[in-house]
């Protein structure tokens, strides 16, 4: 088994990859480093716990189709053959041949699932059951011939909703998560946490959490931004009215001056005598 692993920049420099949280990106690198020579890993959750990633990081990688998962719990790196080319003398075939049989290889060498096989805690797998009826008159005469009648079409199962947010009370399907990340690429996590805290604090319930987040976003956008108030009364500082003060004080000042002049006149007369 080869020990060296490589990564194609066309994948890890793409917007779809870089838009993921750093913890999801780190988990992708660790999973790729520990995959076998065909990109299969049988212990993704152990690796997730080992590096301190959350279940949400693993779900994001699945939702973004960077990894494909099977019912057995095994996963495969979707773009493995784009990342790595291993020489035949070092190549060791995967031991997960049953899972490999469910895959097909596209022209660009990426894997795709021919048959849905996703773990029950992430996605549902569907399988049509058939009801086999054997005609009593033919039983024992021709055991190889069976009258196979398909059963009634099973009811359409609802997509699995996963728990997100600090309080694990925001329920979103994988399709909901993809839409949320597309519509709010820069703050989709903050919007999930906002709804999670609100539900936890108020006890309110909502039928569709994606619709609730969208509705809140529309209200936030429609809410007018606070503006500075205009036309408020302004206190004006009045200048002293010196003219009025001068006019008011003129009679008394005039009397004082006249008195001083009279005293001065009397003094001059006494000196002249």
Q: Count helical runs.
A: 11
| CATH C-level name of the domain at 9-113 | Mainly Alpha
Order of helices and strands: HHHEHHEEHHEEEEEEHHHH
Strand content: 5-15%
The poorly predicted ranges are 116-139
CATH architecture of the domain at 9-113: Orthogonal Bundle
Task: Provide an overview of this structure.
Residues 243-252 have a biased composition (Polar residues). Residues 135-156 have a biased composition (Basic and acidic residues). Residues 135-159, 218-255 are annotated as: Disordered. The structure is a single chain. The protein has helices spanning 9-12, 15-18, 22-34, 44-50, 55-63, 80-83, 97-100, 174-183, 188-202, 209-222, 242-272, and strands at residues 40-41, 67-69, 75-77, 103-105, 111-113, 130-133, 147-150, 162-164, 170-172. The longest helix has 31 residues, at 242-272. Helices cover 42% and strands 10% of the residues. With 273 residues, the chain is mainly alpha-helical. It contains 11 helices and 9 strands. α5 packs across α8. A hairpin with a 5-residue loop joins β2 (67-69) and β3 (75-77). Among the domains are: 9-113, Arc Repressor Mutant, subunit A (Orthogonal Bundle); 162-221, no CATH class.
Quickly list its features.
Arc Repressor Mutant, subunit A; two-stranded antiparallel ribbon; 273 residues; single chain; elongated
Give a brief outline of the structure.
It contains eleven helices and nine strands.
């Amino acid at each position: 088994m080869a020990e060296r692993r490589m990564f194609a920049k066309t994948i890890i420099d793409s917007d779809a990859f870089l838009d993921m949280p750093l913890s999801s990106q780190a988990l992708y690198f660790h999973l790729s480093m520990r995959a076998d020579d065909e990109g299969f890993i049988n212990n993704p959750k152990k690796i997730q716990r080992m590096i301190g990633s959350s279940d949400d990081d693993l779900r994001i990688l699945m939702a973004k189709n960077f990894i494909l998962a099977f019912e057995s719990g095994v996963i495969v790196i979707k773009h493995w053959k784009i990342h790595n080319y291993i020489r035949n003398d070092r190549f060791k075939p995967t031991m997960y041949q049953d899972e490999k049989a469910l895959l097909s290889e596209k022209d660009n060498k990426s894997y795709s699932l021919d048959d849905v096989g996703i773990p029950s805690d992430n996605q549902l797998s569907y399988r049509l059951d058939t009801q086999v009826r054997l005609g009593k008159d033919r039983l024992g005469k021709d055991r190889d011939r069976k009258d196979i009648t398909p059963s009634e079409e099973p009811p359409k199962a609802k997509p699995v909703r996963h728990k997100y947010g600090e309080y694990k009370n925001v329920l979103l399907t994988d399709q909901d998560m993809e839409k949320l990340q597309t519509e709010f690429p820069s703050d989709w996590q903050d919007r999930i946490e906002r709804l999670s805290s609100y539900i936890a604090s108020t006890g309110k319930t909502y039928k569709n959490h994606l619709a609730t987040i969208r509705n809140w976003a529309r209200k936030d956008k429609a809410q007018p931004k606070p503006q500075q108030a205009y036309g408020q009364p302004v206190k004006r500082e009045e200048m002293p009215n010196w003219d009025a003060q001068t006019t008011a004080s003129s009679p008394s000042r005039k009397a004082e001056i006249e008195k001083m002049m009279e005293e001065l006149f009397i003094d001059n007369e006494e000196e002249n005598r």
